[in-house]
Amino acid sequence: MAGEPQADCLFCKIVAREVPATVVRETGTTLAFRDINPQAPTHVLVVPKVHHPDAASLAAAEPAIAADVLREAGEVAADEKVDGTGFRIIFNTGAGAGQTVFHAHAHVLGGRGFNWPPG
Length: 119
Fold this sequence. Notes:
Blueprint: H1 10-15, E1 23-26, E2 30-34, E3 42-48, H2 55-61, H3 63-79, E4 87-90, E5 106-110
Helix pairs in contact: 2-3
């Protein structure tokens, strides 16, 4: 059921502390932790504590929590001191866009230059 923890979801397991992660921030609705395969000097994932398969589903079902994820992404950037030099917040949606864990999450990337268009 949407919003409920999924037994086979890696990020649900991280939220439940069943799988270790390097947590950098936590709120009542979100958890932020370092990516295990960083693509930039700063690469932190911000996940909602509720399970939705992607950002669009999260925004449709629980817009306040989607806003919490975005707010926390900004706080992560400030904590990591990349807010002044520039950072990216990325939501990959679907396998074709590079999503590999089907639990909504934002990538916060910073600490190096980025090209446009991405990818």
